[in-house]
Amino acid sequence: MSPRATPVRFDEAGPLALSLARSVADEEFTVLLVRDVRGRFTLIVDDREQPVDENRRDRWHAALVEQLAPYVTGRPLTLASQMITADALLNSPRATSDTLRPSGGAGSIRLLDNTVVGEDWAKVSTPGPEADGSRTHRTALYGFKGGVGRTTATAMLARRLADEGHIVLVVDLDLESPGAGPLLAGPDSLPRNGIVDHLVEAAVGNADGLELVTRTAYAPRSRRGELWVAPARGQGTDGVPYAYVDKLNRVYADLPGSSFADRLADAVEACEKAVALGDSGLRPDVVLLDSRAGIHDVAAVTISRLCDLALLFGADSAQTWAGYGDLFAAWQTSGRAPDIREKLRMVASMVPDTVHHSMDDYLDVFTARSYECFAALYDEVAPGEALSLSTDDTARIAFAPSEKDDAAPHHPIPILFEPGLVGLGAGDARSWQDRAFVKAAYGVFLDTAARLITAGPGDEEGTR
Prior knowledge:
By secondary structure, this protein is an alpha/beta fold. The protein has helices at 10-25, 54-68, 86-90, 150-163, 180-185, 195-202, 244-248, 260-275, 297-306, 318-334, 337-340, 359-374, 436-454; strands at residues 30-35, 41-46, 72-79, 96-97, 108-113, 137-143, 167-173, 214-215, 226-230, 286-291, 309-314, 344-351, 388-390, 395-397, 413-416. Strand 1 (30-35) and strand 2 (41-46) form a beta hairpin.
């Protein structure tokens, strides 16, 4: 095999490495393809039951070097028989299975991707019930780009759910641009501490006694309802400067025995427990997580690990679809698409409704582009084929909603654009949900999102 005429680039290295791993697996070997933090690959071959002769070893080694350089490590090919930690690596819970079976032979492939940030996008799980069997429903509100009205929508949804009798907690996880706390409670009514304080203090075993939440002054229409907020930034202690930037610079590190994801989950859990110390003595039954925008570790943990439902905000722009396209492609490549897709729902924010740009026309275009983007997460079913998929040992119904399926993840929940919403602050907030232009802008969103959050298993809903 002759060397490449031009150096391989990062985007090409992944598919090439996977193709080479599949060719080895086709020779009936179990292999693990490992990528390091610089993007370089090592192929580990399990030769403990089937020895690898010298010719095979040299052929595989030469192919890896010739096709992947400079994206190979100093040991591009490693045999399990020569490793002390072979079982730990080959059976690593962080490794994922190849989404395509080898094209012949009995071998198998797993992938282990080591990254500096963003690793939690591929670690998908759903919160379980509390120790007493109760269930707190967590909803993440996320936008790939900022400026799409996510925090305002969070505040509106929180009030709607409190009006319905729920104990609602809003957790501001937009640490770099905190806003939910002041918007819901006002700057003078925030607790002394915020999420950043828990992340910093817990790192040194000092998180007990923090004041993390406050009950807002909002009076829900239902007497049972409560609205609480856990801000990213607290109010601080009188006479002591609040060193927010210094704290923020220290929150993202993984600590021995405790990853950033675990620490963020612990902080959210601490806020939920703090609500139970309030007047009713009950934990929140609905938690809204206002996530930071972009491909960032906070968003990765929030969507992949902390929530039951993720509302994905976006406007119809090239940046929106390119960003979500990259994220969905990463889930598809990592094999996590089936685990994540059914807890996603698209929100079309700032939808125009004018003589020149009608809401229906805009949403038709938005839906088509959203469907094209989400297709990376859906199962491929050829026309005329049954909506079922099977492998050697399992069978399941394919997840392949149509473009017009109004309960599908790609189908947008609209929020209309209204100039009066721009710059709406805490001073305007007490009665804003009763204003006609606010009801018109948020009506469909609030009805649909509230139904998604409170619906029982098997309940169906539509948006238009």
